[in-house]
Every structure is written in C-alpha cells, then in structure tokens.
Amino acid sequence: QVQLVESGGGLVQAGGSLRLSCVASGSGFSINVAHWYRQAPGKQRELVAGIFTGDRINYADSVNGRFTISRDKAKNTVYLQMSSLKPEDTAVYYCYTIATIQRGQAAFWGQGTQVTVSS
C-alpha cells in the first residue's frame, strides 16, 4: 500500500501563490505517474497537472503558465506550485499516483487539501 498526504492548502487572495505538497509513504513501491486533480463544489474532479511516464508533463489549459508540477524522487514528494491564483481555482486539490507495488501496479489517492482563493 501507498499512503499519500497532501499539505499546503489554505486561504489566499487573488493573485497570490501557494505550494502544495504530496508525500508518498509505504514500503516497496515506486511511483510511475503523479497527478494533481481538483474538485470544486458541484463540479466533477478534473486533472490539473500531471507527470506521466518518461517524466512528460501536461497541464490543464486553465492553469497552464500559472501552475508548475515537480517531483523530488528521493523524498517521494510531488509539488504543485500555484501562482497568480484566481477565485475559480478554489477547490479541494487531490494527489493521485500510479505506483508499482509488490502485486503489480495500483492507483492511490490522497485525502485532499482545500484551496480557497478570495477575490
């Protein structure tokens, strides 16, 4: 099993910045892909940024140029640097990974961290 714990959310004014962190823990695993999703009230969960196989990175159009995803493999940590935040970025942000574990590959979600952007 892999446990994901997000942190770094909070309340920020429009135009401000936040950095989210997602720490993966467990035994005998390696992370293959790492994504950040978000879900606003009444809306579907959407992919915000992702590190895919081969370290290819993609961003949703709505955050491209404002958000940066990065990864520290030694610390099993994925970051989401968010800048020029807008009220529409308000959501619960979730970390998601696909990891290789003893029995094969499996997907894991974190518990989420709230980001609120005030106008």
Provide keyphrases for this structure:
single chain; 119 residues; mainly beta; seven-stranded mixed β-sheet; 0% helix
Written overview of the protein:
This protein has 119 residues and is mainly beta. 0% of the residues lie in helices and 63% in strands. The protein has no helices and 11 strands. The protein has strands at residues 2-7, 10-13, 18-26, 30-39, 46-52, 56-59, 67-72, 77-82, 91-101, 104-109, 113-118. The strands form 2 sheets. Strands 2, 4, 5, 6, 9, 10 and 11 form a 7-stranded mixed sheet that branches. It has a 4-stranded antiparallel sheet with strand order 1-3-8-7, with no helix packed on it. Strand 4 and strand 5 form a beta hairpin. The protein starts with a strand and ends with a strand.
Spell out the blueprint of helices and strands.
Layout: E1 2-7, E2 10-13, E3 18-26, E4 30-39, E5 46-52, E6 56-59, E7 67-72, E8 77-82, E9 91-101, E10 104-109, E11 113-118
Parallel strand pairs: 2-11
Antiparallel strand pairs: 1-3, 3-8, 4-5, 4-9, 5-6, 7-8, 9-10, 9-11
Compute the number of helices: 0
Say how many strands there are. 11
Question: pLDDT below 50 for ≥5 consecutive residues: which ranges?
Answer: none
Largest sheet: 7 strands, mixed
Helix/strand structural class: mainly beta
Helix content: under 10%
Rg over CA atoms, rounded to whole Å, is 14 Å
CA-based shape: elongated
| Beta-strand content estimate | over 45%
Distance between the ends: 40 Å
Spell the H/E element sequence.
Answer: EEEEEEEEEEE
- Mean pLDDT score: 96
